Amino acid sequence: MWHLFDLTGRVAIVTGASTGLGRAMAVALAEAGADVAGVARSDQSETAAAVEAAGSGYHAITADLAGADKAAVLAEAVEVFGRVDILVNNAGTIRRADAVDFTEADWDAVMDLNLKAAFFLSQAFARNRIAAGEPGKIVNIASMLSFQGGIRVPSYTASKHGILGLTRLMANEWAKHRIGVNAIAPGYMVTDNTAAIRADPGRHAEITARIPAGRWGEAADLAGAVVFLASGASDYVQGAVLPVDGGWLAR
């Protein structure tokens, strides 16, 4: 049954691929056999080296997805690799402030990247797959704050609730085209976005105490989930969200 997870001959776009969760997922897809087009604003050389060491091809697309032409990003990946079968919408940002003080600029910066870019890149991907008459897989990156309210992150919370809703909406519309649309909801992970929380000893201890696994997640913990949702193993999974959270939601 291992062939169900084999991505040989497939091409994946991974946004936010330069570091953290994006890099780990790009490498996981490469280890399963996929070539990868990474999208990021910053240097992607380390991700490229890791993907190529796994035996797959890598192409770096430098773009700020909040303002970039999403169709052009997709077209570049297709031009390089000849096709795109998988889209992982991982790029995201966060701004922290009390809700009573939160600015419109901070609201727009988060929503434009986390939600708007994910939708319009998915739209470009779906148009490509439908026109080709071929299947595809979209994996959105949700969050614990797709289910909870959080504190001091109003735009991030709204964007991640939105990602969960869009995952279901796109699954409803595109399943008939054999485009699988699902999401991963990482728990509290060791990433740049959580640096501020991890630097607060009290908050860090409070969060860790609630995680049944007794630890924060590492980027590599997403490897199995992303390969599953990008592969034939999940062909009858639609509109689902897979928490990878050490049991946070169970508690």
Any overview of this molecule?
This protein has helices spanning 20-31, 45-53, 70-81, 104-132, 154-174, 195-198, 201-210, 223-230; strands at 11-15, 35-40, 58-62, 86-89, 136-141, 179-186, 241-244. Helix 1 packs parallel to helix 2 and helix 1 packs across helix 8 (223-230). The two termini are 33 Å apart. The protein has 251 residues and is an alpha/beta fold. Strands 3-2-1-4-5-6-7 form a 7-stranded parallel sheet, with helices on both faces. It has a single domain, classed as Rossmann fold (3-Layer(aba) Sandwich). Strand 1 (11-15), helix 1 (20-31) and strand 2 (35-40) form a beta-alpha-beta unit. It has 8 helices and 7 strands.
